[in-house]
């Protein structure tokens, strides 16, 4: 009883009942939660004085019970291999707590191996069975060559392994106290690590999307680390040097990062050697000057056709009287599509342009040399023939089919006779004529 008095002398009385517990009294516990075999019946007791207490069980069936004992058949134990007994004291009050629990190891006839059923080749994984006391475990792999057991103790409930091909993990176990035994199997599929499909070399300017070639599935993320160590997630391989490509996807085994060299395109062809004034339908050889090792030349033509291609040189036959262009670029032999800029050679149709010089007022009965001169840049000719508009006035006495013929002017008493010297030039089967008018002075 507690008595309280205020300043006025008024008193109040308060009562409370206290139960003093014996400090030597141990807490309640469920006795005999020892190892049992699956489907066996276990008997369990508790020092309980409360009639409102009742039993609960996980993993088994209550066969009979009192406020101090219970009989349980362990016929529904989960994959963890342990049953649970619960003494529910919620209605009893006191300081004993609302529930008292105990775990019971139950040796199952068919155990459940804990671990991944799909694993990656060459990676190490751990598998376990319930940690039952006084139990010997014997692990094996079927077929034996499919996986290697590591950190393995045959009496241990766990095992580590590295696998190469699909297999069955098998374990047989025996409890040395209850002498009950069981086994467990887990079929395990082994998949190979994903390897990124990346070219051996990549050209600068190539889009990073070219590496998205792992098996088609969503959820793959890529990271690209450039030679300076900076990270990008998309774009282009914009600088030369060694790049590192990383990828991840939860649907795959770990994806091994790869390093790939990124190279600049080769230098462009400096110039193309070959005929720039060409005859139609006649083959000409053109060559890319200054070859670069480990490169290939890619040729294209407008206004003609490529007859043969030997790499640095091609044979072209021109067929058009219009625009004629030969183009070439270099490509690294081991980086297809890594092209240099294009070098062009413009070709025109061969056409001779010439003029004639010499005495325009020769005297009759004289020999005079005349000269045909090709205009600068004109095509050389294949043949030239000289003639006169009036053969009676004179003739070519020497130098026919040359650029400097000698004309002999015949004797005449006519004061003057007009005549035209004609040079007929042939190039590539095309005929061009040049005229030169003169006047022969009679004697």
What percent strand? over 45%
Low-confidence region ranges: 11-22
Q: Tell the overall outline.
A: rod-shaped
Number of strands: 37
Task: Summarize the biggest pleated sheet.
Answer: 5 strands, mixed
What is the oligomeric state here? Answer: single chain
- The assigned structural class equals mainly beta
Question: What does the model show?
Answer:
The protein has 443 residues and is mainly β. The protein is 0% helix and 48% strand. The protein has no helices and 37 strands. The chain has a five-stranded mixed beta sheet with strand order 17-21-20-18-19, with no helix packed on it. A hairpin with a 5-residue loop joins strand 18 (221-225) and strand 19 (231-232). Residues 11-22 have low confidence and may be disordered.
Keywords:
single chain; 443 residues; mainly beta; 5-stranded mixed sheet; 4-stranded mixed sheet; 48% strand; rod-shaped
Could you give a quick summary of the protein structure above?
The chain is mainly β and 443 residues long.
Give the secondary structure arrangement, pairings included.
Blueprint lengths: L1 E4 L5 E4 L21 E2 L3 E5 L8 E5 L2 E5 L3 E5 L8 E7 L10 E9 L10 E3 L3 E5 L6 E8 L4 E4 L7 E6 L3 E9 L5 E11 L10 E2 L17 E5 L5 E2 L8 E8 L9 E6 L8 E2 L3 E2 L4 E6 L6 E8 L1 E6 L3 E6 L5 E9 L10 E7 L4 E4 L8 E4 L1 E4 L8 E6 L5 E5 L7 E4 L6 E12 L2 E12 L2
Parallel strand pairs: 3-9, 10-16, 17-21, 23-29
Antiparallel strand pairs: 1-2, 4-7, 5-8, 6-7, 8-9, 11-14, 12-15, 13-14, 15-16, 18-19, 18-20, 20-21, 22-24, 24-27, 25-28, 26-27, 28-29, 30-32, 31-35, 33-36, 34-35, 36-37
């Amino acid at each position: 009883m507690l008595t309280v008095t205020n300043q006025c002398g008024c008193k109040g009385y308060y009562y409370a009942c206290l139960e003093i517990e014996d400090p030597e009294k141990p807490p309640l516990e469920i006795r005999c939660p020892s190892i049992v075999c699956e489907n066996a019946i276990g008997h369990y007791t508790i020092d309980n004085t409360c009639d409102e207490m009742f039993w609960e069980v996980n993993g088994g069936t209550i066969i009979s019970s009192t406020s101090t004992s219970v009989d349980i058949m362990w016929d529904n134990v989960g994959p963890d291999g342990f049953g649970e007994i619960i003494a529910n004291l919620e209605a009893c009050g006191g300081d004993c707590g609302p529930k008292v629990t105990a775990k019971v190891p139950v040796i199952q006839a068919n155990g459940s191996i804990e671990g991944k059923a799909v694993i990656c080749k060459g990676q190490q994984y751990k598998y376990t069975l319930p940690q039952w006391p006084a139990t010997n475990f014997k692990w094996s792999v079927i077929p034996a060559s499919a996986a290697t057991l590591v950190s393995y103790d045959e009496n241990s409930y766990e095992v580590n392994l590295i696998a190469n091909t699909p297999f069955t993990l098998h374990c047989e176990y025996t409890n040395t106290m209850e002498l009950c035994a069981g086994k467990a199997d887990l079929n395990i599929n082994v998949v190979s690590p994903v390897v990124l499909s990346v070219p051996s070399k990549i050209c600068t300017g190539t889009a990073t999307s070219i590496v998205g070639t792992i098996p088609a599935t969503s959820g793959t993320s890529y990271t690209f680390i450039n030679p300076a160590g900076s990270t990008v997630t998309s774009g282009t391989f914009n600088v030369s040097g060694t790049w590192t490509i990383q990828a991840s996807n939860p649907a795959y085994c770990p994806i091994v990062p790869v390093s790939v060299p990124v190279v600049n395109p080769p230098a462009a062809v400096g110039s193309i050697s070959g005929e720039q004034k060409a005859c139609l339908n006649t083959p000409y050889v053109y060559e890319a000057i200054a070859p670069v090792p480990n490169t290939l030349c890619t040729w294209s033509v407008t206004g003609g056709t490529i007859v043969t291609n030997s790499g640095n040189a091609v044979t072209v036959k021109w067929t058009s009287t219009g625009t004629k262009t030969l183009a070439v670029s270099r490509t690294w032999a081991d980086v297809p599509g890594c092209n240099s800029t294009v070098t062009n050679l413009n070709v025109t149709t061969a056409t001779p342009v010439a003029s004639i010089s010499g005495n325009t007022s020769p005297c009759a009965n004289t020999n005079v040399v005349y000269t045909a001169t090709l205009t600068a840049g004109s095509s050389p000719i294949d043949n030239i023939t000289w003639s006169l508009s009036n053969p009676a006035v004179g003739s070519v006495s020497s130098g026919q089919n040359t650029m400097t013929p000698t004309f002999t002017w015949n004797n005449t008493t006519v004061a003057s006779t007009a005549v035209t010297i004609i040079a007929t030039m042939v190039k590539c089967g095309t005929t061009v004529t040049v005229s030169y008018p003169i006047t022969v002075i009679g004697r």
